[in-house]
Specification:
By secondary structure, this protein is an alpha/beta fold. The chain has four domains: 73 residues, Chorismate mutase (Chorismate Mutase Domain, subunit A, Up-down Bundle); 88 residues, Periplasmic binding protein-like II (D-Maltodextrin-Binding Protein, domain 2); 75 residues, D-Maltodextrin-Binding Protein, domain 2 (3-Layer(aba) Sandwich); 92 residues, Alpha-Beta Plaits. It is built from 13 helices and 15 strands. Strand 1, helix 4 and strand 2 form a beta-alpha-beta unit.
Length: 361
């Protein structure tokens, strides 16, 4: 009796052979592009081209594959292409298995090289010194807001934001000690804050201790009796430490936004799909005039430029002096954006362009 699955499997095998041929042909073309880029000093990783490819393939997609799955496949294809064009080294907040590591892999795929860096400020330094090509840093969380160290790092750095990526964050309590005997909980300050209500219910007397990263917290908890860590389940698997409780974050839609930073800015993708980040200081304008914050925002509103974020941080230069971190829709090279920034510079002592980059689909 013949196998009814055999003809279908033979068709799948034929498709696989064709797919492998097409993939190798595509990567060979990418290698040729890499040669041309190296000869002209061109940029290997081009975020606006990446964005265009994702939009092109999703527009072509007629199913049944979901767009998310198609993009994940193309992420790895482009990762392999980049590796053929020129090896890239991506710095991330380490050690291995942090959320920043996961975000880096989501953005750049499995074919590039990665380097674990101890602190966010060290990531800036590594790229500035040419020890890494790009870095990825957490910038804000949907539950706890901005990462202060990351914002402060942009004030003194000339690096540019070239891309962004969002990652859903699911925290686990990780320990070799039973829940009732845990008296210390280690993690990054943001992770501790994102699980505050759960910790108050289940470990109200435990001491909460900030660490450089969630993965570092797991390393500490592994060797410390009575200690636990808050981190991703992947970190528990890597370190070989049991998971005591899963999904302990206070918000189910807990998401962190990450910036990709590098030396060269990204070009425009157009069509309202760019975001520009700025840091602005009002200086003496804020003290001398009421309505100075509104005045700072007017150049954008008058030109139809949408503001998606405005956040203040102490400048650390003098009391009650603030820096404003702003996200607006559009690219730095757009004529309306240039006009708005030129107007800002007439009365603001600091208007610094942090970067323009594609919005996330």
């Amino acid at each position: 009796m013949s196998d009814p699955l055999q003809p279908i499997r033979e068709q799948i095998d034929a498709h696989d052979r064709h797919l492998v041929e097409l993939l190798n042909s595509r990567l060979a073309l990418a290698a040729e592009i890499g040669k041309l880029k190296r000869s002209t000093g061109g940029q290997i990783y081009v975020p606006e081209r990446e964005d265009a490819v994702f939009r092109k393939v999703t527009a072509l997609n007629q199913g049944p594959i979901k767009n998310e799955a198609l993009q994940a496949i193309y992420r790895e294809i482009m990762s392999a292409a980049i590796a053929l064009e020129k090896p890239l080294l991506i710095a991330y907040l380490g050690p291995e298995a942090t959320y920043t590591h996961a975000a880096a892999i989501k953005k750049f795929g499995a074919s590039v090289d990665y380097s674990a860096i101890a602190t966010i400020s060290d990531i800036f330094t590594a790229i500035e010194k040419g020890e890494a090509d790009y870095g990825i840093i957490p910038i804000e969380n949907s539950t706890e807001g901005s990462v202060r160290e990351a914002l402060d790092g942009f004030v003194d750095s000339d690096l540019k934001v070239v891309a962004q990526v969002y990652l859903e964050i699911n925290h686990a309590l990780i320990s070799s000690t039973p829940l009732a005997q845990i008296d210390k909980v280690y993690s990054k300050d943001q992770a501790l804050a994102q699980c505050r209500a759960w910790l108050q219910r289940h470990l109200p007397h435990a001491q909460l201790i900030d660490t450089a990263s969630t993965a570092k917290a797991v390393q500490i908890a592994k060797d410390t009796p009575g200690a636990a860590a808050i981190a991703a389940e992947l970190a528990a698997q890597v370190q070989g430490v049991p998971v005591v409780a899963k999904n302990i974050q206070d918000q189910n839609d807990n998401t962190t936004r990450f910036f990709v930073v590098g030396k060269r800015p990204s070009g425009p993708v157009g069509g309202g799909r760019d975001i520009t980040s700025l840091v602005v200081s009002l200086g003496d304008e804020a003290a001398a005039n009421s309505g100075s914050l509104l005045k700072m925002l007017m150049p954008f509103g008058q030109r139809g430029i949408n503001l998606s974020k405005v956040e203040s941080r102490p400048s650390k230069k003098r009391p009650w002096d603030y820096l404003f971190f702003i996200d607006v829709t559009g690219h730095y090279e757009d004529p309306a954006m240039k006009e708005a920034i030129a107007e800002l510079r007439k009365f603001c002592p600091l208007v610094k362009w942090l970067g323009s980059y594609p919005s996330v689909q």
